[in-house]
Write a sequence for this structure.
């Protein structure tokens, strides 16, 4: 987990809220990340201006046991949604604080903002404040990834994630030659070019029954691009408590190869 993972997750959640259609259509909800700027000032401006303020904050992090050096765990999140009804509800089509909170709860549940993990909705709470309606949306993020890049593959009902500890990327293909008029072999290029990866992946032991099989696909970032690979090897090589180590290898098919 990077030094700024909490801030990064909150940024990703805030962006996901802004992209929810009822929020973007209404145009009266300003989404603020608690760790960005002076929150009280920003909230006051939002309530007086757009009408509703939604402040995203990370409130607690619990490290998952048995994950070795990784800081992977569960992150508690809170979205504080507030409005001054006397101001906000004069706007035609404006979302109320309750409307916005319910939109956030249903819109984020079981989504993966920024691919940091899966968001789960936990509940709504109201707060009594003078002249304001305030609703808290309680969420938590089941972190998929700690330090390092993520590798992911599909399972029934979702996606399984692991943390890449080591990664080797290579290129393959068959060389193409042409014989010239002097009888010399001239190299023209490579046929069936593909990229290969050889990975050591740390993952929850509970997912070992769902590791990819030969021919299944998984995704792995290569030079910043999430790339689909066909599995050529998947083997659990170690398991300590709740953590398993997977040796995973794969190759792309021609036509889907990033430049490496």
């Amino acid at each position: 987990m990077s030094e700024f993972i909490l801030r990064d997750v909150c940024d990703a959640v805030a962006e996901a809220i802004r992209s929810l259609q009822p929020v973007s259509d209404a145009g009266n909800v300003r989404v603020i990340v608690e760790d960005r700027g002076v929150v009280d000032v920003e909230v006051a401006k939002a309530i007086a201006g757009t009408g509703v303020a939604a402040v995203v904050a990370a409130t607690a992090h619990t490290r998952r046991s048995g994950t070795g050096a990784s800081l992977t765990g569960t992150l508690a999140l809170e979205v504080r949604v507030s409005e001054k009804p006397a101001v906000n509800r004069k706007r035609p089509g404006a979302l109320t604080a309750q409307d916005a909170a319910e939109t956030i709860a249903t819109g984020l549940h079981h989504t993966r903002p920024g691919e940091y993990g899966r968001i789960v909705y936990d509940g709504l709470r109201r707060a009594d404040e003078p002249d304001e309606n305030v609703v808290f949306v309680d969420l938590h993020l089941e972190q998929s990834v700690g330090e390092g890049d993520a590798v992911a593959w599909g399972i029934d009902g979702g996606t399984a994630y692991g943390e890449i500890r080591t990664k080797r990327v290579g290129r393959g293909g068959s060389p193409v030659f042409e014989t010239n008029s002097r009888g010399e072999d001239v190299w023209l290029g490579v046929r069936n070019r593909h990229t290969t990866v050889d990975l050591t992946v740390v993952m929850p032991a509970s997912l070992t029954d769902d590791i990819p099989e030969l021919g299944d696909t998984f995704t792995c970032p290569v030079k910043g691009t999430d790339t689909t690979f066909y599995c050529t090897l998947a083997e659990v090589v170690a398991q300590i408590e709740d953590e398993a180590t997977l040796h995973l290898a794969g190759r792309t098919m021609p036509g889907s190869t990033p430049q490496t």
About this structure: The radius of gyration is 24 Å. The chain is about 20% helix and 50% strand. The CA atoms of residues 23 and 121 lie 18 Å apart.
